[in-house]
Amino acid sequence: MLIFWAKYAIGVSLAMRPDLGSQLKLLDIAVSGLATGYFLGWLFCFRRAYLRVPQSDLAAIR
User: Fold this and answer.
1) 16: buried, middle or exposed (CB in 10 Å: 19+, 13-18, 0-12)?
2) Whole-angstrom Cα distance, residue 62 to residue 53?
3) Domain for residue 22, yes or no?
4) Computed over its alpha carbons, how large is the radius of gyration of the chain?
5) In order along the chain (62 residues), what is the average pLDDT of each group of 10 residues?
6) How far is CA 42 from CA 4, 24, 53, in A?
7) What is the spatial distance between Cα 17 and Cα 25, in angstroms, rounded to a whole number?
8) What is the model's pTM?
9) Domain assignment of residue 55, yes or no
10) Mapped to the 3 state alphabet, what secondary structure does 31-59 carry?
11) CB 6 within 8 A of CB 24
12) Cβ neighbours of 8 (radius 10 Å)
């Protein structure tokens, strides 16, 4: 939710102050990069946890 509000605030600021476009666009890119890094970090953590779990043959269980 924090990412949404940050992007929303940047969009509103850009609409209200178009003269600050270059600075706000850099901030927008930074927020997007942080969000991407956050979600990729979680993806790698889940993948690592998934690979640690022993695999079982569910078809053999009756």
Assistant:
1) exposed
2) 21
3) yes
4) 20
5) 94 94 94 96 95 81 68
6) 18, 27, 17
7) 12
8) 0.70
9) no
10) HHHHHHHHHHHHHHHHHHHHHHCCCCCCC
11) no
12) 10
Query: Is 30 inside a domain boundary?
Result: yes
Contact 28, 7 (CB under 8 A): yes
Contact 9, 20 (CB under 8 A): no
Q: What is the pLDDT of residue 55?
A: 80
Q: Which two tokens stand for residue 46?
A: 């889940």
Q: Domain for residue 61, yes or no?
A: no
Count of the separate structural domains present in the chain: 1
The encoded tokens of residue 45 equal 């953590």
Tokens standing for residue 21: 């476009």
Which tokens in the block code for residue 35? Answer: 């969000």
Give the chain's length.
62
Identify the pLDDT of residue 57: 77
**What are 17's two structure tokens?**
């102050």
